[in-house]
């Protein structure tokens, strides 16, 4: 079968990693409880920053956010390795911009994600992901972002939200831990 995955906040814990960097950089000590209640994908509100200030800080830390030691979510690497061993096809579809495509792929490889270079798509808007996903004929796709998930409802594939505080309003199947993926496959898409 063909499995498609978003990367940031689906396979790797990017926002939370950035949240810790923000605390360090701003010399604040905002608790993780605040983070876990955020209803926005952006994290600047938790630090009392405007959208503009938030964007500025995010961009100034981008190198560190993307390429230092952001952890994969628990069991993400092992689960994808197992899919690979079982002979499934794994696709990555990220909205990270073109300039970061190659490096992101290398970073994922360095973190033991199973990667085939021609199965890696990047440099698209959220609204363009749907076209890539449709063209690939995926059986399953996983993403965290409402703006993406909302575009996929008419496609004939199993779409799952990676559960987060900012996508719980969506009434679609969700995956909380990557350990659940095996059950999802066995159940033919139901959990
Ligand atoms: Mg994402």
UniProtKB/TrEMBL annotation:
Q: Which SUPFAM superfamilies match?
A: HAD-like
**Superkingdom classification of source:** Bacteria
- Is the keyword Hydrolase assigned to this protein? yes
Key words of the record: Hydrolase
Protein name in the entry:
Nucleotidase
Q: What is the lineage of its organism?
A: Bacteria, Bacillati, Bacillota, Bacilli, Bacillales
List its EC numbers: 3.1.3.-
Per the similarity annotation, which family is this?
Belongs to the 5'(3')-deoxyribonucleotidase family.
Q: Which organism is it from?
A: Ammoniphilus resinae
């Amino acid at each position: 079968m063909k499995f498609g995955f978003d990367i940031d906040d689906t396979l790797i814990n990017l926002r939370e990693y950035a949240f810790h960097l923000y605390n360090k950089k701003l010399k604040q000590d905002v608790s993780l409880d605040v983070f876990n209640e955020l209803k926005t994908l952006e994290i600047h509100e938790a630090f009392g920053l405007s959208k503009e200030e938030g964007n500025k800080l995010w961009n100034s830390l981008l190198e560190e956010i993307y390429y230092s030691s952001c952890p994969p979510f628990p069991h993400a690497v092992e689960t994808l390795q197992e899919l690979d061993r079982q002979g499934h096809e794994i696709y990555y579809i990220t909205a990270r911009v073109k300039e970061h495509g190659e490096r992101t792929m290398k970073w994922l490889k360095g973190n033991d994600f199973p990667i085939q270079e021609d199965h890696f798509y990047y440099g698209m808007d959220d609204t363009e992901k749907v076209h890539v996903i449709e063209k690939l004929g995926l059986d399953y796709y996983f993403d965290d972002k409402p703006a993406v998930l909302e575009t996929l409802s008419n496609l004939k594939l199993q779409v799952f939200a990676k559960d987060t505080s900012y996508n719980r309003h969506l009434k679609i199947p969700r995956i909380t831990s990557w350990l659940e993926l095996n059950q999802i496959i066995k159940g033919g898409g139901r959990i």
